[in-house]
Request: fold
Amino acid sequence: MIYTSIYIKAEERILDLRSISLKSKKDVGTFTEFLNSRDLEMDEDIDYAIVLEENDRIIASGAMSGPVLKCIAVDRNYEGEGYIGKIVTYLLLKAHHENIDSLFLFTKPENEPVFSDLGFHQIAKVDGEAVLMENMKNGLEKYLDHLSEKKVSGDRIASIVMNCNPFTKGHLFLIEKAASENDHVHIFLLDENRSLFPADVRIDLVRKGTSHLDNVTVHHSGQYIISAATFPSYFLKDSKRIIDAHGRMDLALFCDRIAPALGINRRYVGEEPLCPVTSHYNELMAEILPPAGIELIVVKRKEQDDDVISASRVRKLIAEDDFDAISEIVPQTTLQYLKSPEAQAVIKRIKGLHK
Reply:
């Protein structure tokens, strides 16, 4: 446990800054109660949290989930006294020790000046709802510069955002359809390592599985497309209101910055009959993309034996050791990987979850 005392001469106060134990029901309960008093909730993906206390009572808080700062709040009676700055400064120091250079946070528009003074910069916003900020002034610009190197000219430039956990014939069907209908297709593979198949494995499977298509480029999504930074509730399956705000932020960033960098004017998605979060995100795309000059093409999911082909179906068959059935719904390159020694650790985790 980290425990630090801060002496504030102006107020003649001794304040204790400490990390809380996320395994302690008492600590988590007190932390959650404080957040609730500030109309916030404790996200389930928090991996580190701190509180500033006076006489054992929380007066300010903050937390981290990877590169995202969360749960930053201060007691109403202590607002304007600089305690948010102390919390954020300590979290920045923690991130530095964890070798995390780029940090993100969501905040309400009225709080943007507070975080601007602490070195954060706006990278996207949803009017009246939220602002997404990053502490790296040129982080997004570097990402866009890297993307623009892959820009291809053409009248129809499409994009697909995928997770591919793992890569299936359903994913390949969608990519091949887009490739046949457009001059070029940009695939963004989600980088978040919250899937059973690691990000480097997933992107390798997609690249190998689409190597026969000469008008397809596969990109890492980075922190700026459906990530823990731009769309945290995509991974948390949070309330619809929060999902809506995060989804709009993610799409604002895509429409305003990412699509122009590559000249993207079309986006392909598969129908989503299974996941309500993805289904709602598709609805948001239908609302937001066309006014931004990006056509949305929704494609009926590919089926096998009267059932949609999905990555979750593949994982279930892996747990059942049914490689004959798997061979019917994944590309040969994916099947080869699943039968290789490199896949055994992933397969073991999948079977452990399906016991």
